[in-house]
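Consider today's protein:

***
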Amino acid sequence: MIFTMNSQDLLEGLNTVTRALAPRAAKQILEGVLISAADSRVQLTCSDGSITIEYTNAAMIEEEGQAVFPGRLFNELIRKMPVGDVHISVTDHRSALIRCMKNRSSLAIMNAAEYPEVTGLKEGTVIKIPQNRLKEMISHVSFAVATDESRQILTGSLLEVSRQEARLVALDGFRLSMQKVFQPFDLPEGQDIIKAIIPGKVLNELARILPDDEAFCTMLIDKGRMQWNFGNIQIFSSLLAGEYIDYRRILPTEFRTEAKADRLSVQNAIDRASLMAREGKNNLIKMSFQPDVLRISSNAELGNVEEEMEASLIGDPIDIAFNARYIADIIRNVTEDDLCMKFNTNVSPCVVTPQNGDEYLYLILPVRVFQ
């Protein structure tokens, strides 16, 4: 295998695909990046066995072939190269010669025949969502994906696609996040909804890699697997097996109290109160909603914080407490200027929604402290 490729294109590809490398690979071959050169293009592939990322770009091919390079070392080597064309030649299955400008390096490689076969999906349901909208959806739900492996199904996020909308849902037992995108979708005849439980790691990598533009990301969903295509990148992943929690059953439909306040003011006040809350035993933030005023406070042995701000209230006044980190995560992900919070009691879930429409919904469980 002999090819020449722009160093910045090669680095971009390596930065992308090496995200799939596991910290401790089950097999040595999976510590590498598979490089395939053919048809005036070079394809880079990395996999940890559950997620695979491929990157393809133009190159000048003198001799077609394949080889597996040590992923992280090769990435760092190319990162340190000067900007220009990189010439790579592999004459056997043991070493590669890498030249760029006046730099000349050799690198031990592995036999591509030992790399697990990577096959894309040939059929399934095709879903297309603008890349920037999908990126935004993921970024606003990923914080609520569970990290506790004892509830493995919750370590993923539920994607539901109907003929009029797609929604992404994540919950960890303490809070829930749901994001929607409204557009027509073509589903197979006889199917009104498609569901897939995407591993949290895959979502995080997607959010980092997806470009922030309006071009479409094409998703292909089949039995137990999913594929994402955008630009010159392809991502393949296994889906989580099992039934996701019926989140609709835990969403309140009626509320006794609705409060509105300036979102940035609430966020800043909670950030300040969190400094003291972290010093306490329970990391609690207390919120007291009264007519025309919201009081936010926290207490610890070292001191206390209390802050008031303007707010509007419809319904009964309420005093409620939350884990400081959980409520901060939710408010930080609200993008509107006004924060709209809905309650029933101080021991039942609080729901955060837009003032108009239902593009998103957050739910958080309070902490029982008030009698």
In short: The chain has three domains: 2-114, 125-249, 253-364. Helices lie at 7-17, 71-79, 131-141, 200-209, 263-277, 324-332.
